Amino acid sequence: MAQKKTLEERIRNYIRENENSFWFKLEELLYDLTETIYERMKQKGISQRELAKRLGVSDAYISKILKGNENISLKTLLKLALALGLNVEIKMQPIEQMSFRKTEESTSNRSWQEVIDFPKYKFDENDFQRAA
């Protein structure tokens, strides 16, 4: 009889199977963005209300951004960064040339060989239709 997988094993398998999907990568970007915003707000002692006031938007809009529920424009991203005293840097590079630091952060439980052989992203045409 096959041994029953633990919840942790099932979660790790799910992540491994989906980590290169469009939607997983989008969630990773949203998570990184919101964590950066939260950390900077904490460092500067800025509340959600104060940040909303600096941007000239509602508290609810900031809440949506921080929950990852808002698809913000580059213009809004820049305003947000400047309000927090941050610079925005956006890079697009071939997947084969991804910086090791980024792959190491997101793959801390992998072996060196797995990090070096970081798999290609798997997109299908439906991913782009849903994103539009």
Strand content: under 5%
SS-based structural class? mainly alpha
Question: Which CATH-level-2 architecture of the domain at 8-90?
Answer: Orthogonal Bundle
**Mean pLDDT score, rounded?**
78
Q: Give the low-pLDDT segments.
A: 99-104, 110-121
Order of helices and strands: HHHHHHHH
What do we call the CATH homologous superfamily of the domain at 8-90?
Answer: lambda repressor-like DNA-binding domains
- Described by the principal axes of the CA atoms, the overall outline is elongated
Number of helices: 8
| First-residue to last-residue Cα separation | 46 Å
Question: Could you explain how this protein is built, in words?
Answer:
By secondary structure, this protein is mainly α. The protein has a domain at 8-90: 434 Repressor (Amino-terminal Domain). 61% of the residues lie in helices and 0% in strands. It contains 8 helices and no strands. The protein has helices spanning 7-18, 22-44, 48-55, 59-66, 74-83, 100-106, 112-116, 125-131. α3 crosses α4. The protein is elongated, with a radius of gyration of 18 Å. The N and C termini lie far apart (46 Å). Mean pLDDT is 78; it is low at 99-104 and 110-121.
